[in-house]
Amino acid sequence: MIPLYSALGLLCLATSVAAQSSTVPAVPDPSPLTLKISTASGTRNKTAPLLHGLFFEDINHSGDGGLYAELIRNRAFQGSDVTLGQKKGFSGDRIIDSENKEVPWGPTLTAWKSIGGALLSLDTLNPLSDALGTVLRVDIPTDATGEVGILNEGWWGMDVQVQPYDASFFIKPSQPLYNKKVTKINLSLRSALNNDTFATQSIAIDKPLSTYNYTQFSTVITPNKAAPNSNNTFAITFDAAEAKGNTFFISLVSLFPPTYKGRKNGLRKDLAEHLAAMKPKFLRFPGGNNMEGLSIDTRWQWKKTIGPLINRPGRPADWSYYNSDGLGFLEYLEWCEDMEIEPLLTIYAGYSLDLTNKQPANTVPKDELQFYIDEAIEQLEYAMGDVNTPWGAIRAAHGHPKPFNIKYVEIGNEDWFSDSYYWRFPAFLDALKKVHPNITYIASQATESSPANRNTTIPPGAMWDLHHYETPQFFKDRFNFFDNWQEISGYKGVQIFVGEYSVLSRDRVGGVDWSNSEGRFKYPTMVAAIGEAIFALAMERNPGVVTLSSYAPLFQNFNGYQWTPDFIGFTADPNATVLSTSYYQQQMFSLYHGAETLPVQNTVGDFNPVWWHASISTDNRIWIKLINAADKAAPVTLQLDKKISRVNGTILGHEDEYGFNYIGNATAISPKKFTLDAKKAVKGQSLQYSVPGTSIVVLEIV
């Protein structure tokens, strides 16, 4: 993903700024269109079976505070947020503000509050582990009365339902102050607005706590009623009569609701189910810029994201907030396993971004590159090696003895920002192919403009990851981009992965305004979905060229984000989740994706304002996708070579091309199913249909 604050965003792709018109073409009025569709065997081509998938990186609190189901914010005091910007008189970007005013990215008490006068501070003298060196110090006043302790506000609240929550925490008393009188610790879920308590669970302390080692307590807490909203907190408290005068060190406080597929340390169930409902075919992870890091040392290091949470230090990530890395390498692989989708792993390839936002940024020297190549080989062994391999044995010890099967590996991310990919890519490719010759490898730069001023050599059988954040008109203009692309570009035998794409803004002369964000959408609109659908049709009708694609970004926490527009918006309240127009368009295209393409001949009319594509399923259902970018209905005649018995349809449309879904009106633009009256619309092998204005339609013909 292109850094939001990037001055170099203008060189996203060479094609993004090429051939820009001095005016934005008007959408023409529809004219009659006749499409002749052949279903005869011998005229079909296999579709790309994995075309529609997912791309995930932790941006917009899509991981921590989002899909990663942990409800406790700042659970282990790993780090904090920063604000990036510029300072007059100095070159490049820098940190201009931070939660920790003394140490940017440093630990803070964010989201933690005192109960009953407890004094909260950070402590580094009593680390929980080598990875988690800062803990919460809780000093209980000597004159405390009633209830005393701490509470956590969650990620802008937390949802409380009548369901079991897995709670745990580590605690150690200060030895010289410990009076050994505490007989229980109380955990509770309570309202942040009033005195309502929805659940309380007591943990009995039947012997003195160790003052040498931390003790971990785990329990299940089940509310007896649901909270009316998400303004709720989680509390750990003591009876002040027992605890007064004591000091306790606490860390790695965790609270998990039921997760997707019941995975321990897993995914937020409702958000994961929205993804699964799309029937995606693959997941690209872990990024994105967030994989590269803002320095080589702060790259996403997979070895630091596996194993017990107590051994995961987290990292200052690329999107201005600290990552806990609770959602780590194994969790990504299990996500793929649980959704029955292909993992597409992006590996670090020796290039990192920089706070200054200057490009090219941080490149590993040639004579140091082997370490990172070996790291990638070990990463694949952790995922794919059997239990007799060193890293496969470690994976088994982490609870997953069965190896995963990775068929796709991307080498780097958006390496058109670098001036070194032309030599880093072949170094990684050659080494990886020797160990894993059957993996399909993907290059992150090919023909884009770059500081190196040269294209990357990609061998036949490999792929190119293409990224486009554009206007609707851009995608309309490039409807034919993939036609004969391999021959035109000189990349024979190379296929394309459209790894990141979306409509970013209104149509405007010059395309997307990367400098001032003029016309940028806050939410995906109907016209955005239409532009993306047209580009998706361009991919679908070229299955020999484009085999994988994914929208970006995937998620947006409405309370803390860095990028708009986004696929799915959410808060702590599942009832406030918004599935965008882009989500529904992608879902329709994924669900109605045939096994073979059907040739379509336009005997009357041409593309624009209507675009189309046809495919057929293994059980002979014909799916015809029709996109009408005009605001008026478009008459279409479909002529098949077989009798039409029944026609069902699904439509996504809105009278306002700038209409969008939002909290309180989340289904304003959502797919509607319909059935055509065959007596009126069908005559033998011919079908008459008027495609409504500003709509995306899938007809199912049997």
From TrEMBL:
Known catalytic reactions: Hydrolysis of terminal non-reducing alpha-L-arabinofuranoside residues in alpha-L-arabinosides
Ranges of residues in domain Alpha-L-arabinofuranosidase C-terminal: 499-695
Keyword Membrane: no
EC numbers for this chain: 3.2.1.55
Record Gene3D superfamilies: Glycosidases
Signal peptide: 1-19
Gene Ontology biological process terms from the UniProt entry: arabinan catabolic process; L-arabinose metabolic process
SUPFAM superfamilies found in the cross-reference section: (Trans)glycosidases
Pfam families referenced in this protein's UniProt entry, alphabetically: Alpha-L-AF_C, ASD1_dom
Bilayer-crossing regions: none
Gene Ontology molecular functions: alpha-L-arabinofuranosidase activity
Pathway(s) annotated for this protein in UniProt: Glycan metabolism; L-arabinan degradation
Keywords associated with the record: Glycoprotein, Hydrolase, Signal
Enzyme category, top tier: hydrolase
InterPro entries xrefs: Alpha-L-AF_C, ASD1_cat, GH, Glycosyl_Hydrolase_51
Family of the protein in this entry: Belongs to the glycosyl hydrolase 51 family.
Name this protein carries in UniProt: non-reducing end alpha-L-arabinofuranosidase
Natural source organism: Pyronema omphalodes (strain CBS 100304) (Pyronema confluens)
